[in-house]
Design a protein that fits this description.
It is a multi-pass membrane protein. By secondary structure, this protein is mostly helical. It has a single domain, classed as MFS general substrate transporter like domains (Growth Hormone, Chain: A, Up-down Bundle), CATH 1.20.1250.
């Protein structure tokens, strides 16, 4: 069996790498576009790059069949290596186009998102099948903490580099970071867990026959509804409040990464001690409080960099703790014979619900304003908190 430490190190690097592309797309580029005068509706167009993450379940069975061949064995490393190289090339293409060519840079980032989402299928499947139940908390912490660190690099350090070097050089550096983060997994001598040759072939049909999968989809959709809909508003709001790109980059990067990682570790510890539901509820209610505070700040046209920055990083920390608990609940519900397919369905539910909310924000955000949008998101979060215990029992 693979060493738990080597598994966590390898998948941790991949989770960070995947989130670098996400950070560039969902945090870095929106702030750059807003600085150049783009509307929220134009920024929402870029967020279409989340589509591969929303619908990767369509090709997840094919990737799992390649990764886990019928004759037995495990091809996780070749799958990650080939698809990961496509992701690096896509980021290089985005560097050579630039945000002034919105259609071209969006197309490049869609390819990058497709590659990143595909690597995630293999990575999640490998993590679930390689970590025993007692070690899965570390896997969840690597997943969520890695996502925050990658977002900090892509949405934080990236903005600082743009201020200093410009779009092309900053994005090329991100491509190099992406390649380096995949090396611990690709160069590891840790043995891969062999796949049973007599196992049922991975398929969506097999996934949808299982009650645990339907439970997971419903739970993810509900939780994202309460936690994430306001997320896309925060960076443009900070820009409109007069905060510089460098300061936003510092908040997303060094400070945000630290708070997110601490939140993930605390979430893992609290989940082990108290269980998943209490941690998910506490995180959700804390997010409601932060979002309501942002609504009040927007209504009062409050422009304190320190105060608004504190609210932004608090949102990251409490979300990290909640999603560690959520995915700890879901990891045990994925079948070991097709963990990549089952876990992908959970993540696609996350992406679809997020995309719906973000597009609604883009369509109505300019008309309603930040105060109303943050306020509506906080009210939705309260409704989700009321429903969550019943869904968890179901």
């Amino acid at each position: 069996m693979p060493s738990p430490a080597a598994v966590v190190l390898g998948v941790g690097g991949l989770y960070v790498a995947q989130s670098v592309i996400g950070g560039v797309t969902f945090q870095g580029l929106p702030a750059v576009l807003r600085k150049d005068g783009a509307s929220l509706n134009e920024i929402a167009f870029v967020l279409l790059t989340v589509l591969p993450w929303s619908f990767k379940f369509l090709w997840a069975p094919a990737i799992e069949r390649i990764r886990l061949p019928a004759a037995g064995g495990n091809r996780s490393r070749p799958v990650v290596g080939v698809i990961g190289a496509i992701g690096v090339a896509a980021l290089v293409a985005a560097a050579l186009t630039g945000p002034s060519m919105l259609g071209a840079v969006t197309a490049a980032l869609v390819v990058g998102a497709f590659a990143s989402a595909t690597v995630d299928i293999a990575c999640d499947g490998y993590a679930v099948e390689s970590l025993a139940e007692k070690h899965r908390g570390w896997g969840n912490a690597a997943q969520v903490g890695g996502a925050y660190l990658g977002s900090a690099i892509g949405g934080g350090a990236f903005l600082i580099l743009i201020d200093q070097l410009g779009w092309r050089d900053a994005t090329l550096i991100m491509a190099g970071v992406l390649a380096a983060l995949g090396l611990p997994f690709l160069l590891s001598r840790n043995p891969l867990r062999p796949h049973r040759s007599d196992a049922e072939r991975p398929s969506l049909k097999a996934a949808f026959r299982r009650r645990e999968v339907w439970f997971g989809i419903a739970l993810v959709g509900l939780y994202v509804l309460g936690q994430k809909w306001a997320m896309v508003l925060i960076q443009p709001y900070l820009v409109d409040a007069g905060m510089s790109l460098s300061l936003i980059g510092i908040l997303n990067g060094f400070v945000g990464a630290g708070v997110g990682i601490v939140g993930a570790l605390l979430g893992g510890w609290a989940t082990k001690r108290h269980g998943t539901l209490p941690v998910m509820m506490a995180s959700l209610l804390a997010q409601v409080a932060v979002t309501a505070a942002l609504s009040v700040a927007a209504y009062a046209t409050w422009k304190s960099d320190a105060g608004l920055g504190a609210l932004a990083i608090a949102s990251s920390g409490v979300m990290a703790a909640g999603f560690v608990a959520l995915y700890a609940e879901l990891m045990g519900r994925a079948s070991l014979d097709q963990a990549g397919v089952d876990f992908t369905l959970f993540q696609c539910a996350d992406g679809v619900v997020s995309l719906i909310g973000w597009q609604l924000v883009g369509v109505f955000g300019d008309a309603l304003g930040f105060a109303w949008c943050f306020g509506i998101a906080a009210a939705i979060g309260l409704g989700v908190a009321a429903l969550l215990p019943a869904v968890m029992r179901g």
